[in-house]
Design goal:
The protein is about 75% helix and about 0% strand. It has helices at about 5-25, 35-40, 45-50, 55-70, 75-80, 100-120, 125-135, 145-165, 165-190, 195-210. The chain is elongated.
């Protein structure tokens, strides 16, 4: 990388870092591009070359989401390693099948998304502004496309271990659970009176319908 490219990268990192500090400490609505420029020691034009205020918000908040994913990646790997079932015992319909546990499945699904619910609740103004920016469509999300596979894999593992779903069926149910999760996040972002407990309840309600729709939970 050339020295000029290094300088641009360093400037970008500085601008995004200062935007994050200001958004979290001063508040997104009360922070201006001029504030970010002053804090980073650059011109307004330099800030705008990195991104407008909405673009900076998306980058800042998606960095937060990535950090939450990374912090729990080891736990996710442990969950997946323990999720396999012996050959011939899942969806075979022979012998005594392990007991299914719908309540435990719901709790594990909630545990999987718990850090992101906490993140959205702890930074409500930013989270709601982030959701609104994405809904408008002028700024695309990278984080959902990049990192959704982690949650999909975790959800699938829950359906296999606790609901005894065959892998193909577990994969379909995992997609449904993930779409319900993303939908609940955007609903929360658009509903100022919806707190952390209400978001958890909304997810539980949606997932309960998914789990309850499975005769014997999952069948072959």
């Amino acid at each position: 990388m050339s020295s000029r490219a290094d300088s641009r990268a360093a400037t970008r990192k500085k601008v995004v870092g200062e935007a994050r500090v200001l958004f979290e400490q001063k508040g997104y609505a009360r922070t201006t591009v001029r504030d970010v420029a002053a804090s980073a020691g650059v011109s307004v034009g330099t800030v705008m070359s990195v991104g407008d205020k909405d673009g900076l918000l998306v980058e800042v908040f998606e960095d937060r989401i990535r950090e939450a994913h990374e912090e729990r990646a080891v736990g996710a790997e442990d969950l997946q390693e323990g999720s396999g079932s012996p050959s011939g015992q899942v969806g075979q319909g022979s012998g005594s099948a392990p007991a299914v546990d719908g309540n435990a499945a719901l709790e594990e699904l909630l545990t999987a998304v718990g850090p992101f619910i906490d993140l959205f609740a702890e930074h409500q103004e930013m989270a709601r502004a982030y959701g609104a920016v994405l809904l408008v469509g002028r700024h695309a999300s990278q984080v959902f496309g990049e990192l959704q596979e982690l949650l999909l894999d975790e959800f699938e593992a829950v359906f296999i271990r606790l609901l005894q779903c065959p892998p193909a069926q577990a994969e379909r149910h995992a997609v449904g659970a993930y779409l319900a999760y993303v939908g609940a996040l955007f609903e929360w972002a658009a509903t100022p009176g919806m707190d952390r407990a209400a978001l958890r309840a909304r997810l539980r309600e949606g997932w309960q319908g998914l789990v309850g729709a499975m005769p014997g939970r999952c069948e072959s």
